Amino acid sequence: MTEHRSPDAKFRTSLLEENDGPATNPSDNRTMGEIIAARFSRRGFLKGSLAVSAIAATVSPLALVSADQARAAEGSAFAFDELEAGIDDKHHVAPGYDADVLLRWGDPLFADSPEFDPTKQSAQAQSRQFGYNNDYVGYIAIDGSAEHGLLVVNHEYTTPHLMFPGIVKIVEKDGKKSADVAPLSKEQVDVEMAAHGGTIVEIRKDGGKWQVVRDGKLNRRITSNTEMALSGPVAGHDRVKTNADPSGTKVFGTFNNCAGGVTPWGTYVMAEENIHGYFSGELPEGHKEAANYKRLGIPEGAYEWAAHHDRFDLSKEPNEANRFGWIVEVDVNDPTSTPRKRTAMGRFKHEGAESIVAKDGRVVFYLGDDERFDYAYKFVTKAAFNPNDRAANKDLLDDGTLHVAKFAEDGSVEWLPIVFGQGPLTPENGFASQADVLIETRRAADLLGATKMDRPEDIQPNGVNGKVYVMLTNNSKRKADQIDAANPRAENTFGHIIEIAEGGGDFAATRGKWEVLLKCGDPAVADVGATFSTATTANGWFGMPDNCAVDSAGRLWVATDGQGPKATGRTDGLWAVDTEGSARATSKLFFRVPIGAEMCGPLFAPDDQTAFVAVQHPGDGGEDWEAFGRPSYYEDLSTRWPDFKPDMPVRPAVVAITKQGGGKIAV
Length: 667
Hints:
Strand order of the largest sheet: 16-17-19-20-21-26-25-24-23
Organism: Mesorhizobium newzealandense
Protein name: PhoX family protein
Region (Disordered): 1-30
């Protein structure tokens, strides 16, 4: 009889995605909530266009009477008829738009790729097919075209209970259903490993609809076994050497690639996030990495890879985990090139790496560490970007300064350099080099006094208005005595968005100003303390901001993660959020995902005539099992999106949204 493991009525990998591990920050640094609370209690009621961001948490903005409610709606930068919020097994888009499935899990990517057969999966087939749980989506134009380019997509993680038949056994006790999950075979683990990583695929718009070019010469799959190079200050360090790689410079694979980015010189960057879930076993007693790994929640053991591959067993390869948690750069112009883990950009649970060119030509990358009570970062290259010589930019990410954010209650933000020998980052505190500082980026940031945030996820610079938008998804573990100016709510279930104006309009500045753009949640519930404008409808509010995008007009679009029957009574989706003028803090629903899914991406084509969105983990029950009435797994799914065929499981997919008849989105 197969021995089943009982995950306490929750599937292990789903739990990893939802909860992101324990809050592991032991420092007594001030939290953003404490800072916000102190700032706004001192300033009192704010006047002017930013007032909606500073309303006390006990006041509902819907209870505030607007002198001209319609004025905000008329001043909106977005022109579309709002979609109705709700929950069902399909995706929905605003009237007048088409939302076409472009790429699904298992779709062939090469001329010789096998067709997808969920009952005959293999690692070899999966390595030639579109991976699982698409997250970040980027576009790199071919010959400057907005209708012909490379789509780059991260594959964050796998959910085996939705992927593989026959591994779930449902048991019922005292009227409650739970799931026992059989251990995965080596073949199934190898499929998982091939389904992680990223996809680079040529796409073309033909007759107003996007198509995959299966014989594209630049098409590529990157997996958990793709050979990669460690570069930058950590390359060759003793703490990244293993039995398989005594040089400390060669790593196999990347995984848990959440958000990412495209550099100004046209490379693809992948951010390694929840790496703790892939490692099992115990370090040898007294091992020097024990405190380092504890700060990252390693090992968590949500995945069973260590049962079949020794490198994920800390008792056998204690340094392997130090080789993950980095930013990976891929040269998309050469499908045979070796991706490089750029260690100068720090090691933590990376969420995104969006970039912009500063006034002096240096390139600034904004980086979130997606954990409760962790930090917001930015990396500034030492050398300037050369727009006329792509090759000259190939190693820009190996030399620069990583900074961490410290928010103050006077509305200022300081970006603190994370540099060996400066301040507390010295041998007296256990750092012997910059390599040590970067391997333990979180501890370095702790010592510098960075502000503890409510899960900083996507951080997006806006080249049109010069601002930076920080998505803070939520933090239900924040207590009343831990609120601060930039994290203003205890038990922050619904999250908020911070807007930063860098000093002098220079993205490379080390000081700036900040405001709370939005406190999220239902504004009709006073205790929630949401601060959407009074022009926001019952469909327009949202919780759990996660990914975001800024289109070429400088308009902000926000994708959510964590809504559902239990949390908000609506699925995740894509909202258009005004940031300027009388409509500031007004939000409108544009697209929503099927039940159980998370909204990832989003991405706008250079001409703003297409919005690409990634529908991740559709049909996953997660913490909403009671609302679903039953677990959702391969044989008994809550949705069979997007195929809706009885012989096909639910499949994560990328969707291309276009306006019927053509034209720019929301114009």
